[in-house]
Amino acid sequence: MMNKKGSGLGIAIIVAIMFFIIGLMAINYITPEVTRTRLPNTGLDCANATSISDGNKLTCLAVDLAVPYFILLVISAAIGYVSTKFLLWWK
Where do the domains of the chain lie? Predict the structure, then answer.
């Protein structure tokens, strides 16, 4: 009789890779919104750093960090899913 412990871990790796690819494909939809948010007609006007307030500068930084945080979220979710399956498999 075969030991079926490894099949769950292999499927978890495949699901994590699929989640990673779908997450990176979603960046194409997030990036234009970040660019649109930084434009002068939205009130942020991130290109003109001398005439905006400190609060707007901080908001510009937060908006600029949306894409890297999303990438880190996708990577950590994929790694977390695989590590959870691995720890359950190891048990």
Answer: 28-90
Average pLDDT over residues 63-68: 92
Distance CA 76, CA 82 (A): 10
Q: Which amino acid is at 46?
A: C
Which residues touch 66 (CB under 8 Å, ≥6 apart)? 30, 34
Q: Which helix (H) or strand (E) holds 61?
A: helix 54-64
* Whole-number Å distance between alpha carbons of 56 and 75: 29
Q: Cα angle at 90 between 84 and 91, to 5 degrees?
A: 95
What pLDDT, in 10s, does the model give residues 31-58? Answer: 999 889 888 887 788 888 888 888 888 9
pLDDT in tens, 2-31: 555 556 778 888 999 999 999 999 999 999
